[in-house]
Amino acid sequence: MSRLTSVSLIALTSLSLALAGCQKKAEGQVVAVVNGEEITSNELNNELAELNVPANVDKTRIRAEVLQRMVERRLLAQAAKDSGLDRDPTYINQERRMKEQLLVSMYGKKAFDTVAVPNTAKVDQYIASHPTLFGDRTRYKLDQIVFDPPADAKALQPLTGMHSMADIAAWLNKQGIKFQRGGNTMDSAGVPPEVMARIKALPAGEPFIVPNNGKIVASVITGSEPVVVPTDQARPLATQAIRREELNKIGEERLKEAKAKAKIVYQAGYEPPKAPAAAGAAPAAK
């Protein structure tokens, strides 16, 4: 085939695609066509559903406004593609990650829909066996010291033998480690019961040190107040907690099965880290 013929075929193909785009009509399930790309009523309804539009609002006006935003977004996306951004490695990597996250999220939601709603007896048993979440739920006042972790975690070993915030602050100053100090709160409902038990077992004024969001946090309890959870609120919360625990079990089992079937090869130096020894530290207070 001559080069001229090849060029002619390419031109004809491009022309055919352009004509096909022009022939698309905004009718039926298609609410708009942007340079040959359709926007469907299903896409529009999904975006409207995320807005939780109040019943007394003019839905026709809102629908038109949302559709216009979708059209403008589509135009900008097309312009970005025309500039070659859809071939940029950064875009390709982020697109893959977002797709994976969406699939995992939908996979989890589908699994959650299969988890049975527990009966009243099971819910009440859960409430009784988790006092820090319900009957004995407590909000603690904290004095905290927050600082960046050193490159070598072993450098923090001296902190394990310190029994006051003053000692920790003095040691950090001596090491030239900058830190921030201030008040915070910790809700017992946000801490695993076994960890909360260890914290409560500490002598009065004894700090506990934990990692949190890339920081090291030293905390000491300075006060507390009960958090009353009415029964009409406790049962729905317990129901959701039971279902989440069941969902976690399903997720762990499915991941275990997937790993057992998978063939995973790591480059030298990129292997998963070895499992650490049982940690005695509590999760950071939030």
Fraction of residues in helix? 40-55%
Side-by-side strand order of the widest sheet: 4-3-6-5
Q: Into how many domains do the coordinates divide? A: 3
Distance between the termini: 70 Å
> On the 0-100 scale, what is the average pLDDT?
88
State the helix count: 8
Along the chain, the helix and strand elements come as HEEHHHHEHEHEEH
Assign an overall shape: extended
Strand content: 15-25%
What class do helices, strands and sheet pairing give?
alpha+beta
Radius of gyration: 29 Å
Low-confidence stretches: 2-21, 278-286
Major sheet: 4 strands, antiparallel
SSE order and pairing:
Blueprint: H1 3-23, E1 30-34, E2 37-40, H2 41-51, H3 59-82, H4 89-112, H5 120-129, E3 138-147, H6 165-175, E4 179-187, H7 193-200, E5 208-212, E6 215-226, H8 231-261
Antiparallel strand pairs: 1-2, 3-4, 3-6, 5-6
Helix pairs in contact: 5-8
